[in-house]
Amino acid sequence: MRPSGRQIDEMRPISIETGVTRHAEGSCLIRCGDTHVLCTASIEDRPPPFLRNTGLGWVTAEYGMLPRATHTRMRREAKNGQSGRTQEIQRLIGRSLRAGVDRVALGERQITIDCDVIQADGGTRCAAITGGWVALRLAVNKMLKAGDVVSDPIVDHVAAVSCGVYAGQPVVDLDYPEDSEAGVDGNFVMTGTGRLIEVQMSAEGATFSRDEMGTLLDLAGQGTALLVEAQKAAVA
Question: Is 91 annotated as a binding residue?
Fold first, then answer.
């Protein structure tokens, strides 16, 4: 039995509220159970220096956790420098979202996705990717409406979900009690058409077989399909 009482293939409740900040070109608050992440998209009409005069745009991300997003207060990383975990997560978010973008169609500009974890209960990086796509979609919609881009640079949805082996059973969408005790932990980033962007898997306390990995991939496919439906409803 999972601590939450969910079935092994049951996601946490998902909600995505859009337009939650006034100034960002795109914004949303994504809730995956008790994990809540604020995602905003900011457009700059210039690319990073390494892309000047290439005709290519760029999508990047920053990620952070508010001091009381967790059970005990954390110090703000701005005061102490970013941890390796934070740097790894924001690179993952950027890589994932770029996989769903035609950078030629985007043109020489940069869109930064800021993902701020308000409350953490497992799966924060996955929620940030899923909500980050919504913020990106809304920002691009504004550019299309204003005529700043000729064709839509977003070529597919991008969503992510965690899967793992908890108490000997493959499960989808781990919350914190499961994540902290999982024998195998993985994050799966996929497109709306079901193609893989990135898979992060590790044996935390037990090794896993190819068959178990296949089961986790199947669970991830089901989970990301539900997340994509939530994205579609949010931006409709």
Answer: no
Q: Is 125 annotated as a binding residue?
A: yes
Q: State pLDDT tens for residues 132-162.
A: 999 999 999 999 999 999 999 999 999 999 9
Task: Provide the pLDDT for residue 27.
Answer: 98
Dist. CA 234–CA 17, nearest whole Å: 7
User: Quick one: which of 178, 172, 175, 173 has its CA closest to 204?
Assistant: 178
- Domains of the chain (ranges; CATH) run 14-235 (3.30.230.70)
Residue 79 pLDDT exceeds 80: no
- DSSP three-state, residue 122: coil
**pTM (two decimals):** 0.96
User: Residues 64-70: contacts with CB within 8 Å, 24+ apart?
Assistant: 64/115, 64/116, 64/117, 65/116, 65/117, 65/120, 65/124, 66/116, 66/117, 66/118, 69/117, 69/118, 69/119, 69/120, 70/120
How many whole angstroms separate alpha carbon 103 and alpha carbon 65? 29
